[in-house]
Amino acid sequence: MRNTDTGNAPKRAIATSLAVGVIVLLLKSAAFLVTGSSALLTDALESTINVLASGFAMWSIHVAQTPPDKNHPYGHGRIEYFSVFFEGGLILAAAIGIIITAAPRMIDPLPLTHLDTGLGISVLASTANLALALHLLRVGRSTNTMTLIADGKHILTDVYTTAGVLAGLAAVRLTGWLWLDGAIACAVALHIVRTGYGLVRNAVKGLMNEADAVLLQRLNRSLRQAASEDCLSVHAVRAWMSGRDVYVDMHVVLPRGLSLAEAQQCMAKLEKMLRRDNPDVAGVHLKLEICNDATCRACRHASRCRHGHAESPSAATRQEDNRRA
After folding, report:
1. Where are the beta strands (DSSP E) in 190-271?
2. pLDDT > 70: percent of the chain
3. pLDDT band at 275 (very low <50, low <70, confident <90, very high)
4. Contact, 171 vs 87, CB < 8 A?
5. Which has more pLDDT, 270 or 233?
6. Residue-level pLDDT at 170
7. Which long-range contacts (CB under 8 A, 24 or more apart) does 261-265 make?
8. What are phi and psi of 148, to 5 degrees?
9. What confidence tens digit (pLDDT) does each residue in 52-99 have?
10. Residues 164-169: contacts with CB within 8 Å, 24+ apart?
């Protein structure tokens, strides 16, 4: 069973992200206003994206936790993919805006003022962002909340971006090459394009139900452990996710000699153990298949199948041919 607190933990984490994001945005905006640096403007624009993305993520997490209803029988978890797609799109848009703003500064650079003060403010903002990113990743992974993981990775990228900006502005301060300010901003923009593309790609993978190799390996491992002596094999395992909820379907091969009650008991045991090892499994669909004659040698029900009422069609046909002969 899921921990009841896991429903509230993502909400608290994303609320923290929004609050800290606003504070960081104010700090980075102050750093830009003090210095007039294009690179610091780039940093402030990315923080603006963080705030907008956190606001949308807060709404999407609320929607994702809404119980299934008549119109959404599988729940509302897939809204998280739209949230990730939205955040990735914002990042790509911001990168384009940064390049348009910063490129002219390479040709016609402007003087920078109070650079030491601006760098100090940016270090403070980046430290707050680092703590926030690590918190979001920890909560997101513990609760399997895709939106939090995406937000955490984005903010962690923002930390790396700020570190690059600070290093570049330190070089400007030492060399006096003002054109480096615009060049750093453009380099940062190209770097965050990669982050935005990655988020959009992951969102599309989820919306298209692309197979998750890691998830399937984990499910198959659980199924191998859960298979009883009556369950001859499990194959054609498939899974898809709706937010943090996992839906699984598979084919289960059982002996012909089992009664309906015995087959149901075996399948219930299989599903129970699968859910025990994978608490995020919200639905399991099992398709029953009857064994073939090739499995009789290894099956404890072989004698029962051959001599009981659950005789295979092939065996019955052979006996009928013998009687006619």
Report:
1. 233-242, 245-254
2. 85
3. confident
4. no
5. 270
6. 81
7. 262/230, 263/288
8. -65, -40
9. 888 888 888 788 778 888 888 877 878 888 888 888 888 888 788 778
10. 164/188, 164/191, 165/39, 165/40, 165/42, 165/43, 165/122, 166/119, 166/122, 166/123, 166/126, 168/39, 169/35, 169/37, 169/39, 169/40, 169/112, 169/115, 169/118, 169/119
- CA–CA separation, 151 and 313 (whole Å): 58
Place of tokens 């640096």: 37
First to last CA, the chain: 61
SS3 call for 77: coil
Give which of 96, 274, 266, 284 is closest to 196, Cα–Cα.
96
Most confident stretch, 135-139, 235-239, 310-314: 135-139
pLDDT at residue 303 is higher than 70:
no
What is the DSSP track for 235-248?
Answer: EEEEEEEETTEEEE
CA-CA-CA-CA torsion for 33, 38, 40, 45, nearest 10 degrees?
90
Comparing CA positions, the residue from 189, 169, 166, 182 lying closest to residue 49 is 189
